[in-house]
Amino acid sequence: RVTDGSDGSVLSWNDPTHSQLTNPSQFGTLVLIDEVKLTTAIKGTPVIDGVADALWADATEIETDVWVEGTGGATAKVRTMWDANHLYVYAVVSDTLLSKASANPWEEDSIEVFVDQNNAKTTSYEADDGQYRVNFDNEQSFGGAASADTLTSATRVIAGTPATLLIDGAYIVEAAITLTEVMPQPGVFIGFDFQVNDDENGDGTRDSVAIWNDPTGQSWQNTSRIGVLQFVEFGRVYLPLVMRAYAP
Ligand code: BGC
Ligand code: CA
Ligand code: CA
Q1: Ligand 1 pocket by Cβ (under 6 Å)
Q2: Ligand 1 atom at minimal distance to the Cα of residue 217
Q3: Which terminus of the chain is more exposed, N or C, with fewer CB under 10 A?
């Protein structure tokens, strides 16, 4: 509540009667949510072929450990990189039975990348927001500003398992997303999330959804709860520019 000393007028955020001192019944509600996760993308330009370039070894790894649907099933370990106009992802998805039996692409064994280029965290998609989906067979589908023009991807199915990959039953997705509304440079943030869809028994119905940050299941139409990614040179988090501007 703000009082203007010059004329005594009062404005409140929620209570239109401004009777907060004696009556809490018209307070607004403050909802506590989990902290937003932050990852860093290192600078580099990988070849998009589903085989890990040596560069990927230095990239920060995140995991999809938030369950949007179900409590177990396919999950992914994901690394990110950037260059002048791309965001790159390399994901190892553990999924022992691969299915694309559903007519709905989001119910096929697939991954989704959500990008909010201006990191505005809006409750509906803006023109800079995109949903990029790739199934294990490298079939792409899109939402928002995403399109085949701005996504290059490759997949590789690992059945039965080279020990080097640590995972028994996996597919790899490597992808390049063209950034059109943000100029990547060290210190800049974008909204980012990574989802794994799993049809666990191959019956054409999705059984689980695991994601890195947003627990709501709404990332495909609402960017307000997705995570945050910062472009860095090598892996170190940069202080926000606004904090530097205020430093003496
Ligand atoms: C969601 C689905 C939604 C679909 C729309 C997916 O990310 O998990 O529930 O219907 O996007 O494309
Ligand atoms: Ca946006
Ligand atoms: Ca599956």
Answers
A1: 106, 112, 143, 195, 209, 217, 220
A2: 8
A3: C
Residues 95, 85: Cα–Cα separation, whole Å: 31
Q: Encode the chain (248 residues) as per-residue pLDDT tens digits.
A: 999 999 999 999 999 999 999 999 999 999 999 999 999 999 999 999 999 999 999 999 999 999 999 999 999 999 999 999 999 999 999 998 999 999 999 999 999 999 999 999 999 999 999 999 999 999 999 999 999 999 999 999 986 544 444 445 799 999 999 999 999 999 999 999 999 999 999 999 999 999 999 999 999 999 999 999 999 987 656 655 444 444 44
Model confidence, pTM: 0.87
Q: Which of 67, 106, 216 is the pocket-test mutation for ligand 1 (most atoms within 8 Å of CB)?
A: 106
Q: How many residues does the chain have?
A: 248
**Distance from Cα 13 to the centre of ligand 2, integer Å:** 26
